[in-house]
Amino acid sequence: MSFPTDRPRRLRRSEALRGLVRETQLSTHGLLYPMFACPGSKVRTAVSSMPGIYQQSPDQIVEECREVADLGIPGVILFGLPEHKDETGSEAASPKAAVQRSIEAIRKAELNLLVVTDVCLCEYTSHGHCGVIKDGEILNDPSLALLAEAALSHARAGADIVAPSDMMDGRVGAIRRKLDENNFPDVAILSYAAKYCSAFYGPFREAAQSAPQFGDRRSYQMDPANAREAMREVALDLEEGADIIMVKPALPYLDIIIRVRERFDVPVAAYNVSAEFSMVKAAAEKGWINEQRIVLEILTGIQRAGASIILTYHAKDAARWLEHC
Ligand code: PBG
Question: How is the chain split into domains, by residue range?
Answer without folding.
Answer: 25-323
